[in-house]
Write a structure and sequence with these properties.
The protein is mainly beta. Helix content is 4%, strand content 52%. The chain has one helix and eleven strands; from the N terminus they run βββαββββββββ. The chain is globular and about 40 Å long. The N and C termini lie far apart (38 Å).
């Protein structure tokens, strides 16, 4: 059973920031690549960013410069710092562990 628990979502105004967290069980955290993706209200699913255990990151162009992925290996936690949020960022955000799977997701709503 995949054990990933996301938190930090909520309602934010356009231009605001949120920091998502994802706590993972140790067996699916080390030494795996972790990432974030999202599913929009229109059911589009897109991968946003990945980070290797050694901290090498990849951010998709759609969020580059606004979102930053990071991880704390001592806490088995991966983060997604989201800045300058736009209404189009409204989605359910999921963290994942490659190759183990996804968490249950956390809702982010960007609206005035």
């Amino acid at each position: 059973q995949v054990k990933l628990v996301e938190s930090g979502g909520g309602l934010v105004q356009p231009g605001g920031s949120l920091r998502l967290s994802c706590a993972a069980s140790s067996d699916i955290f080390k030494p795996y690549t972790m990432g974030w993706d999202r599913q929009t209200p229109g059911n589009q699913r897109e991968v946003l960013a990945r980070i290797t255990y050694d901290g090498i990151t990849h951010h998709e162009d759609s969020i580059k410069g606004r979102f930053i992925i990071s991880r704390d290996n001592a806490k088995n936690t991966v983060y997604l710092q989201m800045n300058n949020l736009e209404p189009e960022d409204t989605a359910v955000y999921f963290c994942f562990s490659e190759p183990w799977g996804w968490g249950q997701g956390t809702q982010v709503t960007v609206s005035s």
